[in-house]
Amino acid sequence: MEQEKSFSSRWALLFAMLSMAVGTGSIWRFPRILASNGGGTFLVPWVISLFAWSIPLIILEFALGRGMRAGPLGSIVRLVGAKFAWMGAWITLAAVAIMFYYSVITGWVLEYLVVSLTGQLAQADPEEFYNQFVTGPWPVVLHVICMALALLVIWRGVGAIERVTTLLLPSLFFLVVILAVRAVLLPGADRGLNFMFHVNWSQIGDYRIWLEALTQNAWDTGSGWGLITVYAIYVRQKDDSSVNCFLLGIGNNVASLLSGVAVICTIFAIMPDAEKQIVGAGNYGLTFVWFPQLFARMPAGSLFMVFFFAALFMAAFMSLISMVELAVRGLQDLGMTRNRALVIAGALGILGGVPSALSLDFLANQDWVWSTALIPSGLMFAYVVLRYGLDQFRQRYVNLACNQMAIGPWWNFVMRVLVPVQGVVLLAWFFWQNVPAAVSQAGQSLTLQARLIEWLRPDRIDNVGTLLVQWAVLLAVLWSANRWMGRNAAETPLK
């Protein structure tokens, strides 16, 4: 069927891109990370990180996708040459690897939405229900259903993406606002608000808070994933890119703040004694074990539990759509027709998600390996524009249609200095933070040499060894196929 070539309006574009960014990271991870890092103190570096990492990379991706009319692989080849095809492939495949298990999590949320609607969840023991569900057959079934629904939207084209996101995104914000307002009106919610927005300036120099804030902003805005590059292909040339990029970053952070208010105020009002347990429960434990307990103690909690899981499913599903579009576009960049790319991406997505649906350990491993890989993805984006020339790229592509707000030389400084420094520091910190976790798995006192061995063992769930081995395998494959990928991407006509 004939596909639309662009989003019909600027608002349709903005809704689509916000739907990509506002995912589970905004709704379930942000409140937990904020609560773990000093509440309001965390918000200061979190806002700064938005302008020091996320928005500059969003500007880059937006300009690249609109200017090259291709995904990350095709765009990088057209910008700096075929020998850098492996970088575009890395960016694409890192996000596709996330798609494999993200669809599984989307299926979990769909299950919880259904059992919330039927009342089954309110009558069950949350921890027992969660353990039985994730070890049963339903995660595989629901993963396939969610992938099939996302594939259907992509098959219908950019018009379908526009219609789905135009419907779901306002609904998502509406539900999150309702949850936030209800949480604020609970007795004792003022303690949550005070915790969330009070800045303890004596803690502001803690480097760990800054690194956690940067990490959260890098992950929950979608910057550096390649997803923005793909949606920017469908931008009308007359649309102002700079304003859209700022609105995307700020809109995502507003959604995160509303989610934070809903979660933190509810915790302080309903179960203040469980605050530390909830903070330490992890993303999955917080969402699927503790939230049902919170809602069970809230007046009209069953209704608000439905609202919460409905909002979470909308966020997860809209992000999944963008990941499937990226997978399809990556194959199109190599010269495939869209229909063939859709079939192959769909089959790989369904098969690739089955191991995560069957094993929580495998899912946790893939989450650690490929969410961390997004940091090199951001660095690769920065590198290619540095190689092309920052001034030339900014003037020719970034400010192509900036009729409202042109981007000035400050962006050059951010891409040349701040983004590389932040990326390298983040990776070093991730690796260093991983040492105690890797050693503790051995359960004994170890020598320095033995600690290093434990840290680098490739058979652990979430240590540096498993990450480096999987990254090395991917890089070896990409480097060996680089000439073929570069040639095909260079010969593929503009879409």
The CATH class is Mainly Alpha
Number of strands: 0
How many separate domains?
A: 1
H and E order = HHHHHHHHHHHHHHHHHHHHHHHH
Rg over CA atoms, rounded to whole Å, is 22 Å
Q: Which range does the strand content fall in?
A: under 5%
- First-residue to last-residue Cα separation: 16 Å
- Low-confidence stretches are none
Shape: globular
Mean pLDDT, nearest integer? 87
The main β sheet shows up as: none
Polypeptide structure, described:
- The protein has a single domain (10-491), classed as Up-down Bundle (Amino acid/polyamine transporter I), CATH 1.20.1740.10.
- Helix content is 79%, strand content 0%.
- The protein is built from 24 helices and no strands.
- The protein has 495 residues and is mainly alpha-helical.
- It starts with 9 loop residues before the first helix and ends with a helix.
- Helix 5 packs across helix 17 (338-358).
- It has helices spanning 10-21, 24-36, 40-68, 72-80, 85-118, 120-123, 126-134, 138-155, 158-184, 189-197, 207-220, 227-232, 241-270, 275-279, 282-296, 301-333, 338-358, 360-372, 374-388, 390-398, 410-440, 448-456, 464-480, 482-491.
